[in-house]
Design goal:
With 186 residues, the protein is of the alpha/beta class. The protein has one domain: Glutaredoxin (3-Layer(aba) Sandwich), CATH 3.40.30. 51% of the residues lie in helices and 16% in strands. It is built from seven helices and seven strands. A five-stranded mixed β-sheet has the order 3-2-1-6-7, sandwiched between helices. Strand 4 and strand 5 form a beta hairpin. Helix 5 runs parallel beside helix 7. The radius of gyration is 22 Å and the shape is elongated. It starts with a helix and ends with a helix.
Length: 186
Amino acid sequence: MNLNKALIILFCLLSVLVVVTIINIDSSKSPMSIGHNYFDDDMFIKNIFLVPEIVRSYERSKGIYRQNNILFFRFVNNSCNSCLDSQLNELLLFQEELGKDRIWVYPAYPDDRNSRIQLASELAKFNYRNIPADSLLIPTYEGEKRSYFAWINDEGEMDMVFIPDRSNVFYTRQFFIEVKKKMRGQ
């Protein structure tokens, strides 16, 4: 009889522990806890300083773009397909809110017939222009080339750079909120 009571008590304690763990995991993923301190202006400024090679690359070639007050997305043809699809879907939702003229996609694909066909199909809903990888640098992280978003302000300067985290779309959405504020002059 004592063994049965001990097993029941142990089962109840384990059940409570599992419930508490699940609640803690869910609350740690909530937008309030992961995004609150991450997306302030200081973080975006630091973000630019963390990727100075992108800013220098843009400065060298900004005559190519001649666009101000836009958000652009830069990626390479060997990006993770599911990551790229996710990022483009988020960008499309943001574009629907702000307008197509405020968003540009700058892929770095080979300049061949197959790439042109692929880009025309995959990016039909966006303003895009295929730009060689050496014209606008794409950063690497642990050997992997990374896609990124960049905000170009009214003066044509790269104001914010954001390298999306493929495991958390919330950060990308928060970045878009900050871009929207800048586009509206807030």
